[in-house]
Amino acid sequence: TFLLDQIRDRSLPEIVYGASTIGPKVVLKMDVEGMEYVILPDLVTSGALCQTVDFCFGEFHPQQFFFPINRKETHGGLFLANAEEGKAFGASLIRALQSSQNCKTIYSMADDEKYLKDQEIDGSAIPF
C-alpha cells in the first residue's frame, strides 16, 4: 500500500532538522462518509495503519442509509445489515486498536466540521 511503500520509512531532512533519531509523525484524517467500515479494517489487517500512522482521527457514520454494507465476496466477508451492527462493529474495531500492544496508532473519534457554521464578519453565511 501507499502508506507502507512511501510513508513508513521516511526520515526528516537532515539539512533542516540536523541528525535526528526521531522520525516524522504521521497524522491521518479519515472522513470517508460511510466507507470507514471497509477502509479501516483493510488498513489494520495490511499493517499500514499500525506500522505507519501515529495518530488517526475520524468518525463512523451509523446513519441507516449507509446500510446494508455487503462485502461478502471481498474484505473478509464483511456484512453489516443495519446501523446497529455498524455501531457495534466500529466500536469493536476501535477497542481492538486501542488495546493492541502491536499498534502504535492513537485513534480519536473526532471530525471537526465546525467550519460549516462559519460566517462572514458581517454575519452573513459563507456560500459553499
Describe this structure in words.
The chain starts with a helix and ends in a 19-residue tail after the last strand. The protein is elongated. It is of the alpha/beta class and 128 residues long. The strands form 2 sheets. Strands 1-2-5 form a 3-stranded parallel beta sheet, covered by helices on one side. Strands 3-4 form a two-stranded antiparallel ribbon. It has helices at 2-7, 14-17, 36-45, 48-52, 83-99, and strands at 27-30, 55-58, 69-71, 78-80, 106-109.
Summarize this structure briefly.
The chain contains five helices and five strands, in the order ααβααβββαβ. By secondary structure, it is α/β, with parallel strands linked by helices.
Features:
alpha/beta, 5 strands, 128 residues, 33% helix, 14% strand, elongated, three-stranded parallel β-sheet, two-stranded antiparallel sheet
Q: What summary fits the major beta sheet? A: 3 strands, parallel
DSSP strand tally: 5
Helix and strand run: HHEHHEEEHE
Cross-sheet strand order for the largest sheet: 1-2-5
Alpha-carbon distance between the two ends: 34 Å
Mean pLDDT: 81
Range of helix content: 25-40%
**What radius of gyration results from the CA coordinates?**
18 Å
Q: What's the multimeric state?
A: single chain
Residue stretches low in confidence (pLDDT < 50, at least 5 long) are: none
By DSSP (H or I, 4+ residues per run), the number of helices equals 5
- What would the principal axes of the Cα set say about the shape? elongated
Provide the β-strand percentage band.
5-15%
SS-based class: alpha/beta
